[in-house]
Amino acid sequence: MTAVAAKRRFWVEDGSSVTSARGVEVLDTPLLNKNTAFTRQERAELGLEGLLPAAVQTLEDRVRRAYEQYHEQPTDLLKNVFLAMLQDNDEVLFYRLLTEHLREMLPVVYDPTVGEAIKRYSHEYRRPRGVYLSIAEPDRIEAAFQDLGLGAGDVDLIVASDAEEILGIGDWGAGGIGIAVGKLAVYTAAAGIDPGRVIPVSLDVGTNNEALLNDPDYVGNRHSRVRGQRYDDFIDAYVRTATKLFPRALLHWEDFGPSNGRRILERYRDRICTFNDDMQGTGAIVLAATLSAARVAGTRMRDQRIVIFGAGTAGVGIADQLRDAMVRDGLERGDATRRIWCVDRQGLLTDDMTALRDFQNPYARPAAEARDWAGTGGIGLAEVVANVRPTMLIGTSTVHRAFTEAIVKEMARHVDRPIIFPLSNPTERIEAMPGDLIAWTGGRGLISTGIPVPPVTYKGVTYAIGQANNALLYPGLGLGAVVARAKRISDGMFAAAADAVAGLVSVNTPGASLLPQVENLRQVSATVAVAVAKRAAEENLAQAPLKDPIQQVQDAMWQPEYRPVRAG
Ligand SMILES: NC(=O)C1=CN([C@@H]2O[C@H](COP(=O)(O)OP(=O)(O)OC[C@H]3O[C@@H](n4cnc5c(N)ncnc54)[C@H](O)[C@@H]3O)[C@@H](O)[C@H]2O)C=CC1
Ligand SMILES: CC(=O)C(=O)O
Ligand SMILES: [Mg+2]
To answer: What positions does the entry give for a divalent metal cation binding (predicted)?
Structure first.
């Protein structure tokens, strides 16, 4: 046994967990603990006799009880807290429960309730999960990771957030670890990423959220956000250390502010295996929904006219992938870019504006084009929609109800099947609710949302609303990258993932969803993983041989089942 394995308390041999831990230490190790499901022999070997009641139960027994306990929780937040406790106590049980009730529990573990849990993080705090890195101690990053007791080959995936733009709810400082934990739970439930081979990371660079700074219970660094060189050096130290200690790990970036998120991605994307989920994962799932919508509408990618409301991390990430898809459909890059109009706080982005952010510049419209568009309040969304006559309207603004009845009806006057994606999370930020959009467009709208929503019935047709949330994409992407041991995550791998998702959808019946249903997430993720791994191999980015990618993906998927545990 190596020193690392000893620190980690257990290792796997021939399908069994072998552990040096005994007694309560075993019960305190969530990936080892089976609680009442330990057999008599295991109890004797591991020093658990007397620490557990007499009955020896099965995983199914334990799932049944946990499900009942879950339903005793009166609110979604308390359900989230309950599931977090379960995860900290018995991880196999947590994942079996989550996998069996994915549609019911995904909104509690993840979007939208995870947003509420992040806001309440310091108050609901019970025990830590993940690695907490502080900008005050960049020299301790290596020691912090080593405290986990993991070896160089033990980590497949690290999700890190600095929590500046959590979902659509802004800056939540140290509570942002919750989005890394939530994203990782989805990786495992949706794609079978081994929960023992992942690390959630909080990059605590301070917070500008004054409610947190003045909250006596706040558990993070109590100062404003550090920016500039010190921030970049901290990120660099994180990347250097993580890639040195865990050379196989994919680094996933989540919920950074727009300029940091993009700068970080540009800096590392050609050097290491990494991606930004808000820009690239979102772009790819929206592309998948767009491909389905275009199939229903009988139109081509290259013919879309796209208005994006909210040109931040997600909005411009979506623009990039829709532009690239139009290029693949035969347009010149410049012509494709000119089929996209971005609207932000200052209205339509035009090239005479001085305060555009660098990543917005490519989408700035010639000011002359819009000279006559201004209404009384400048060139806002209503003016842009009236003049552009878009085929697609995408919301990544966090502005609730921004897609008004007037705007949507104006759009629907000029296009047979208006494609409308209000993608902002969580529920209180969505630009319009699907029921309204379907009614305002007389049932012609092709709708997808970021939050989960129930089907809508309108004039006898039931419309299933696909969830255009990156959660339908990144788990499979990550699994494919892990199976291929990808050196990089390329644009081609995202395009392959989007095509794979769109390929799973049958849009022939009226009201059909534009995206696969959440219940089928494991199948979706497996299909995406195969497509991504194959593309990595085609682009010479795979470091593992891919002889039978379908079987390799199946074999790589961790299953929530109790393993035998032996004393070692
Ligand atoms: N469905 C999905 O998979 C995803 C959804 N999102 C959602 O998209 C929203 C935006 O997220 P990010 O892009 O990360 O944030 P961000 O802060 O980078 O971008 C938001 C943009 O909206 C703009 N904006 C704010 N108020 C506006 C207004 N009144 N009019 C026009 N523009 C306005 C901001 O200036 C900014 O450019 C969030 O609600 C987030 O939850 C983000 C990532 C994935
Ligand atoms: C879904 C997601 O990543 C977000 O809203 O930020
Ligand atoms: Mg996000």
So the answer is: 254-255, 278
